[in-house]
Amino acid sequence: MGQLDGRVALVTGAAMGIGRGISEAMLEAGASVMLTDINTAALADAQATLASRYPQRVATQQVDVTDREQVRAMVSKTKERFGRLDALVNNAWKAGRLTRLEQLSEAQLRGGFEMAVMAAFWAMQAALPLFRQQGGGRVINLCSLNGVNAHLYSGDYNAAKEGLRTLTRTAAREWAPDQICCNVICPGAASAAYQRFAEANPGNARAMAAANPMGRIGDPLQDIGPVAVFLASDASRYVTGNTLFVDGGAHINGVSWAPDPPQ
């Protein structure tokens, strides 16, 4: 028996990186998973790979999470496809360019909040009636050490992810009587954004991995996925309002991305 047998998860930004790793870990644990992403090519690859291994338990939907109606529709379509929804994983993010705070445009800052805070807010509101009908549910929001440690040149991302952490804690307080647990994962893993960073800044990426207390960058499937499975399972039924730093200890010593300063 898997930890998530019979359960249904919805994961945004699921085609690559951490979202893909979480989706695969949940499938391995027995869940059915709706994978959503804006990247159609990556989503098709995920569908082809995972559906062959987990027939009848994988579905995909192209979604732009900055569109409220598409977000609401993805929740409804998950219920239509699998009959229920037990875990909502808000992971989607579209990386913007690194920029100094004084040069950060209002449009980029607003875009960050739409992608991280508003998208999760809409999805959480849409999932709430389903969770209440079923007697409980799980919200797992992906945030970042960028905001916790105030990483350089990513003010839009830092602020948006910290806003999402606060939103998650508020939901945890308000929805606890309905047996809905809301938690945050701050991962230190090879996300799609990290991979782009490493390609552009290979020396800095190597230094960052070496500075991690465990000496490496985490793997989305093997290191982040099992924690998401725990938070989606009965084992976490008394865990809510928490931030889990799944980062090899990076938050302890303030390991930070150190990109070259933007021009």
Task: Report on the architecture of this protein.
This protein has 263 residues and is of the alpha/beta class. Helix content is 50%, strand content 14%. The protein has ten helices and seven strands. It has helices spanning 17-28, 40-53, 68-82, 106-134, 145-148, 155-175, 192-200, 202-211, 220-232, 250-253; strands at 8-12, 32-37, 58-62, 87-90, 137-142, 180-187, 243-246. A seven-stranded parallel sheet has the order 3-2-1-4-5-6-7, with helices on both faces. α2 (40-53) links the parallel β2 (32-37) and β3 (58-62). α4 (106-134) packs parallel to α6. The protein is globular. The termini are far apart. 47% of the residues are buried. The mean pLDDT is 93.
Shape: globular
Number of alpha- plus pi-helical segments: 10
Oligomeric state: single chain
* Low-confidence runs of at least 5 consecutive residues: none
| Main sheet strand line-up | 3-2-1-4-5-6-7
Task: Write down the secondary-structure element order.
Answer: EHEHEHEHEHHEHHHEH
Structural class: alpha/beta
Roughly what is the average pLDDT, rounded to an integer? 93
The portion of residues forming beta strands comes to 5-15%
